[in-house]
Description:
Blueprint: H1 16-50
Protein name: Orphan protein
Amino acid sequence: xxxxxxxxxxxxxxxxxxxxxxxxxxxxxxxxxxxxxxxxxxxxxxxxxxxxxxxxxxxxxxxxxxxxx
Length: 69
């Protein structure tokens, strides 16, 4: 997340209280981003469990490899 002075509300002459306000906004945005990321991870995990596992074709597949040309 990129926070720059251009994106923040104008608070000229606010001093330290402006910094606290900006930090509060940044924290709220990070929490929202974290919740969204967790929701995506949970959604991906639940859809992966719903898929059927891959079927094994044969147990001996790949045991004999011809390396002579």
